[in-house]
Design brief:
alpha+beta; 8-stranded mixed beta sheet; globular
């Protein structure tokens, strides 16, 4: 907190600091006994009618009454990384987008509208659903990636987005990020102000690649292939994978699929890695529930990491859900750390849904 020469806490932020990362201390009106203050760090996304809105790294918005402020200051736009590869949000956003390439895309200024739509396989269709229904495979390939200016006012851009997805029988989603330099806290706040709903939040973690490769001794029994064969797909949790889904799974600069044979009806473990310049992206690491805690996930990632090193990669990234405690503990042991959170915002009902 900012302290004056006289030793008093001071509020050194104003409405002119909207869009900057701040740290504030405020009074707790009805807090537990003995707790008078709370501290909040994040991007100041608005300051209207005596209320500050601060968006934290997780994407959570916190409202603070101006009258409750005790201290506040502008802080560095992003904390210095203590370990792992340095990267901007935009660099990682573009790399991860290439790892889940859509079947169709269109530009709206600096925004990319993406869709990967196909017929729902019969085995994946919910009971009572109509035949021939169209469905998008993974939100990452069926959402807008807004990196920059759409070239038109925001309301006009959102109207165009809703129309583009409605024409394809899909709900309209925007993928945004918080918690890193160059992320989109202000856009998140504007979307929420317009009634868009944050449905999904996950994190992108990064780490050095070589330590991952060193975790598994060769030979590990992991088979690598350029194709997602029937055995691999049998373990993949998205049952009834369509042709469009296969195009997304196999798309990317350099994609490898890992398989550990041994399951009764499917492989004991699988994984996917996308090599793109200095980056190796891990995904779809899945293990037979009966074979967990046997080091299979580590063996899969180590084998994929060795192949990525051979192709010149040096850094790694992956995406992990907030509530996946087991995966987060595993990745932390491997040397990964959170870089930023990403979110999918859905258009309000009646304005983007088919």
């Amino acid at each position: 907190m900012e302290i004056s020469a006289a030793g008093r806490l001071e509020v050194r932020i104003t409405t002119a600091d909207v869009g900057k990362r701040v740290s504030v201390r405020s009074l707790i009106e009805h807090g537990p006994p003995g707790e008078k203050f709370t501290d909040t760090v994040g991007v100041l996304t608005s300051w209207d009618d005596g209320v500050l809105r601060i968006t934290k790294k997780s994407g959570e918005g916190v409202r603070v009454a101006e009258s409750a402020l005790v201290a506040g200051k502008v802080v560095a736009s992003a904390p210095a990384r203590r370990r792992g590869p340095a990267a901007t949000y935009e660099e990682l956003a573009r790399v991860s987008a290439r790892a889940w390439r859509p079947v169709e895309s269109e530009r709206l200024g600096d925004w990319e509208l993406r869709a990967a739509v196909g017929e729902v396989p019969c085995g994946a269709r919910p009971r009572g659903a109509a035949a021939g229904r169209r469905e998008g495979f993974t939100r990452r390939a069926n959402s807008v990636l807004p990196l920059g200016d759409p070239g038109v006012p925001l309301d006009e851009a959102l109207t165009a987005v809703r129309g583009w997805y409605a024409a394809r029988g899909l709900p309209a989603y925007l993928q945004t990020a918080t918690g890193a330099e160059g992320a989109q806290e202000l856009l998140c706040a504007e979307l929420e102000r317009r009634g868009w709903v944050r449905e999904v939040t996950a994190e992108v973690w990064v780490g050095p690649l070589a330590p991952v490769a060193d975790l598994g001794a060769e030979p590990s029994g992991v088979l690598l292939s350029r194709e997602a064969d029937e055995a691999w797909l049998a373990r993949y949790r998205r049952k009834g994978v369509s042709g469009v889904a296969l195009r997304v799974l196999t798309g990317g600069p350099s994609v490898w699929f890992a398989t550990v044979p041994g399951g009764p009806d499917a492989p004991a473990a699988i994984g996917r890695c996308m090599v793109d310049g200095r980056w190796a992206g891990f995904a779809a690491v899945e293990v037979d529930p009966a074979r967990r805690r046997q080091g299979l996930a580590t063996a899969v990632m180590a084998a994929l990491a060795r192949r990525a090193l051979d192709e010149g990669a040096s850094a790694a990234w992956l995406q992990v859900e907030e509530d996946n405690a087991g995966a987060r503990a595993l990745y932390e042991r491997m040397g990964f750390a959170a870089h930023h959170a990403y979110h999918h915002y859905r258009a309000p009902e009646g304005e983007g849904a088919p």
